[in-house]
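Q: I'm building a small set of examples for a reading group on sequence design. Run inverse folding on the following structure and report the sequence directly after it, with nothing in between.
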């Protein structure tokens, strides 16, 4: 079947959106393995301050990081029932702790705009772009860039 003529827009992507501090961020839902509540984890001695620890998730060892702290927005408040977004980056599973999970938004990638140099206190280098909806501005998080920076800081 020809995708050009079957009515499917190849530029559409589903963004899972979430709050990091007060910034609304999003990423392609296909990059997410799962979203869960923060479960007991083991602290890692001498790890960077944004590394919350490691956890065993059905036999997989996951490193969990506080995305707010990583992006320079302070710490995620644990009393607000935050969520861990589990992503797979270069064969390693990483948990990204976020303040709150929001909606899934269908977005047209051809309407993504370049990220501003500073978005809600976060450096623009962590974003591939921004997407404007009727009432929101969503920063498209570049997960690989956030995690690559983590590798260089180890």
């Amino acid at each position: 079947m020809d995708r050009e003529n079957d009515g499917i827009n190849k530029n559409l992507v589903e963004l899972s959106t979430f709050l990091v501090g007060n910034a609304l961020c999003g990423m392609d839902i296909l990059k997410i393995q799962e979203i869960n509540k923060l479960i007991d984890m083991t602290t890692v001695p001498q790890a960077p301050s944004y590394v919350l620890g490691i956890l065993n998730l059905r036999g997989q060892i996951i490193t969990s990081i506080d995305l707010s702290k990583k992006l320079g927005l302070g710490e995620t408040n644990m009393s607000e029932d935050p969520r861990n977004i589990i992503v797979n980056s270069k064969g390693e599973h990483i948990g990204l702790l976020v303040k709150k999970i929001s909606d899934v938004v269908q977005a047209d990638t051809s309407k993504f705009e370049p990220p501003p140099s500073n978005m809600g206190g976060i450096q623009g280098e962590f974003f591939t772009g921004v997407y404007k909806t009727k009432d929101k501005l969503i920063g498209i998080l570049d997960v690989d860039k956030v995690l690559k920076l983590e590798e260089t800081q180890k």
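The chain has a mean pLDDT of 84.
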